[in-house]
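request received
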Amino acid sequence: SSELTQDPAVSVALGQTVRITCQGDSLRSYYASWYQQKPGQAPVLVIYGKNNRPSGIPDRFSGSSSGNTASLTITGAQAEDEADYYCNSRDSSGNHRVFGTGTKVTVL
Amino acid sequence: EVQLVESGGGLVQPGGSLRLSCAASGFTFSSYWMHWVRQAPGKGLVWVSRINSDGSSTSYADSVKGRFTISRDNAKNTLYLQMNSLRAEDTAVYYCAREVGIAVAATYYFDYWGQGTLVTVSS
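response:
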């Protein structure tokens, strides 16, 4: 399968921890990358590879992977973390790319 | 500073054509694979197409294969997407994105994105 499945929505209390998961066969071969998208804005890379953050991304964002599942964890969620989050990887053939279905994170 | 600036979007009738451009600056354009990603209104991100660094290899999502053509002009630091036989379901914001690939680490990611250009297919 070339699909990446995410939960549609999750909520987290301010300052608490939330984990977003992404499932797909391609994740057995490739690491996922994770993107944050706020309304009306382009996506922003937040995690790539085993667990790497681009410059400027707070260290409350972390990533992990096991089998066919990749996870993005926000430890100590802030109001500004409220956004849609998408995973992405190469597909199983390696020729295409595929995005997850997206998870809307609400910070309460 | 890395910049990707899309242009060429607009309103087009079903069956029509449009060419999108993505002007790149601030990096060695010819060294990177480039992609187009789209997002229909209120929907998620969808990968559309990619081209390798010298333009010799391309790949397309099944939904656009045979209708869209990705290309690049490394002398002009510009990426293109020629869209033919447009359908209502092609209505979306189209983003160009730069890809970094580290094959030995099985790691691929889009580190820079443009701001997007809106394509509306409607009569």
